[in-house]
Target: ABC transporter domain-containing protein
Amino acid sequence: MLRVQNLSLTIAERILCANLNVNLEAGENWVILGANGSGKTTLLHTLAGLRAPNAGSVSLDNGEIGAIPARTRARRLGVLFQDVGSEFPATVLETVLTGRYPRLDRWQWESAQDYRVAEAALEAVGLAGLGQRPLATLSGGERRRVEIAALLAQDAPICLLDEPTNHLDLRHQVQVLDLLADRARRPGHLNVFVLHDVNLALRFGTHGILLFDNGEYLHGPLSDMLNRANLERLYHCRLREIRDDGSGWFLPA
Model:
């Protein structure tokens, strides 16, 4: 679905990654991990076609992603940004309906079906019944779930999500990631997450890209990469690994 070839990214004169080659396929949940400033968001935006690479290419369905018209691309690929921060005076339902925009013709208004899709997305994130609330009256965690509902309403088979658990309490972190990871099990669907919580990555991810702060990286199945040695190198801190029922969990030492 997404093909990365010889991708190199730099910020100022700092190399974030060089000659990255990886294929992201349907049915997979990819997680991008790295320390602050390692280039996770920059890589995600490049995968989305929002930033041109310094070298190499990203292809969506065999077409160079930057050359695909924005509306066409948005029907195939949706993006959840790290912080949306809109103060536009809108209701919750109106905000979720913005996710339907790529599905509408140029002068078309939302149909009854679009409203049903938006309301179903709100129910999926646990906000049923709040559609008429002004967005500004919601908590940070509720607004984050509204943003995720808008992404769900977009109904793009590929979702790129920058820290989707921002502002969410423990229960909603698990519920939202479970919901999103389950989507990737549908035919033709793929997720790419930026996460900071290694344990959530282990629980919900299938594959990953680890960005080290010297431009080096690892990619592949998370079960092969997420060990104490790699993570201590990634985050520059000592970790404890706890084993329980065959699962591993990592905590700062």
